[in-house]
Amino acid sequence: MAVDMRLPTVRKQISLAGSNSNADGKHLVVPGDVITSDTGFMRGHGTYMDDEKLTASVAGEVERVNKLICVRPLKTRYNGEVGDVIVGRITEVQQKRWKVETNSRLDSVLLLSSVNLPGGELRRRSAEDELTMRDYLQEGDLISAEVQSVFSDGALSLHTRSLKYGKLGQGVLVQVSPSLVKRQKTHFHNLPCGASIILGNNGFLWLYPTPGQQDEEEGGYYTSLELVPLSDREVISRLRNCLLALAAHKVLLYDTSVLYCYESSLLYQIKDILKPETMDEIVMVTRQRLLDQEG
Amino acid sequence: MASVQISEAEKVYIMHGVRDDLRVDGRGCEDYRHMEIETDVVSNTDGSAKVRMGHTDVLVGIKAELRRPRPNVPDEGYLEFFVDCSANATPEFEGRGGEELGVELSNTLYKVFNSHRSLDLRSLCVCPGEHCWVLYVDVLLLQCDGNLFDAMSIAIKAALFNTRIPKVRVLEDEEGGKEIELSDDPYDCLRLRVGHRHVVDATLQEKACSAASLLVAVTPRGAVTCVRKLGAGSLDPDSIFEMTETGKRVGKALHAPLMELLQKDESLGKKRQKVGFLA
A interface toward B at CB cutoff 8 Å? Predict the structure, then answer.
């Protein structure tokens, strides 16, 4: 039985030798900072005009595209774009749609016509389908989906019309800030360490045991409730702790960084990864490897 | 308490994991999360402590006042508890939402701490029948991530250790110097039943999978002061016995590191680095 109690200490920021310091190249601002006094710029998101000066209203990085200045916040709710892969949880079952929680300002919408129902792709949705919606997706279920469009009020419309999307089975959900997930070509990865991960753009990361047969249809609504072997569980728990460690140190999450973090965490026991000094160690090694790989 | 929505498949995964003694974050069934304890955080109280366990954050402040003792026990002081579930913890606690939980927690704390084996209440007496010290213990829940009882009891013990009350001599309105109050308090250990096994220090997800839990309050010597069942599910009599035994063992094992830490904290004195709330 392990008990770990200690007095709190102030966390020191770790900086690596050989990396360019954060001050070059990045113009970071806090709310109230004046970005520029030049009136020739158009103001974008995250800014406002205070007298004649362009001031930031959120804490983040200034982005300039020709004449447009906007501030991209460091920590924000998820702002969806068309084509993003998300992992969401069903909160409500309504008449012809489901409401999905995706860590954005409004609940996203999954229309009945946007899901794959058994019986073929081009089936007409009947009244019976409406009544049996709960058999497919209930409150509390997790799904992976893609953003089809954005409504005028900012709510996202999702769809699961591909076999790789659909209801998620056994696994672990990790919630991080959406700004930490790197935009990549594919968000579904089968990691060589023995587990699979879905890096949702909305900050919801889903870890699950790699499915056995490759030709098994994952977009269906059948979830396997068989026992997951202990070795797979260990890999998943370790990955979960690594993700939390990386998120705590604000490292961008993509398959390579997660893999490097997993490899450097193999020296420690799974439950020790979340101790502050172990986290610092592991993330420092990961950052170093990522820098070496780039340079 | 704050609850999370969880899917059936996730529940099955968690329960199978508990069966194999490997929980979602890699802990065993009897391991606690990493804890950070700080005392003397609130300056205008007689004693205070702040405990952070995972994402659960609890702040305790203690103020001592002179009052008349209770009529049936004229030579003992007593403790008054008030638990405030702040809306910071979860939106469910907004307005009067947290009142019910707060009242339940306060009542449990009364049962746990107001017994002979837990605290030497006689030391709080100043003049039998006339004056005694009453310790008003205020608990503030700042963040809720499962296992409130354990975090609260550790914080209360640390705050009581940190409490300084003046020594009062009844001699024609004279007062003396400062005295340290050290108590032999009980310590709660909440065991949650998930599937056929029980876990200690459950997170919100694990709590969503469990039907019932048993709260066991244990003193450092191993004496049990309070046993309480929480939750709507039923418990087998055999499993109650098992859970009580494990609760006793785990609770007893928690006292030693805590006392060590509090002694170390005290010995650092002025050199201690104050972290407060902005870490």
Answer: 1-11, 89, 91, 138-142, 168-173, 223, 225, 227-228, 230, 233-234, 237-238, 240-241, 269-271, 273-276
Give per-residue pLDDT as tens, B46-59: 888 999 888 889 99
Q: Is residue A40 part of a domain?
A: yes
Instruction: Say if A48 falls within a structural domain.
Output: yes
From the list A3, A10, A170, the residue facing B254 with the nearest CB is: A3
Q: How far is CA B77 from CA A21, B187, B219, in A?
A: 59, 20, 19
Q: Identify the residue whose tokens are 């709507």.
A: B232
CA pair distance A200, A206, nearest whole angstrom = 8
Give pLDDT, residue B225: 81
The answer to whether residues A134 and A90 touch, using CB atoms and an 8 Å cutoff, is no
User: Helices (DSSP H) in B76-171: which residue ranges?
Assistant: 99-113, 148-162
CB contact under 8 A, B275 and A9: yes
Distance from CA of A199 to the nearest CA of B (A): 18
Collect all residues of chain A within an 8 Å Cβ-Cβ radius of residue B16: 227-228
Q: Take residue A161 and report the two structure tokens written for it.
A: 């019309």
**Chain B residues closer than 8 Å to A223 by CB:** 8-9
For residue A28, what are the domain limits? 23-73
Closest CA to B192 of B5, B10, B23, B50: B23
CA distance B19 to B195: 8
Contact B75, B68 (CB under 8 A): no
- Total domains, chain A: 1
CB contact under 8 A, B273 and A227: no
Q: Residue B252 contacts by C-beta under 8 Å, 6 or more apart in sequence?
A: B218, B220, B221, B222
Domain assignment of residue A166, yes or no: no
Higher-pLDDT residue of A220, B273: B273
Residues of chain A above pLDDT 90, percent: 46
Domain-embedded: residue A241: no
* Helix, strand, or coil (residue B13): helix
SS3 of residue B21 by DSSP: coil
> For residue A124, what pLDDT band results from cuts at 50, 70 and 90?
confident
pTM: 0.86
State the CATH number of the domain containing residue A29. Answer: 2.40.50.100
ipTM for the assembly: 0.85
Question: How large is the angle between the packed helices B148-162 and B99-113, nearest 10 degrees?
Answer: 60
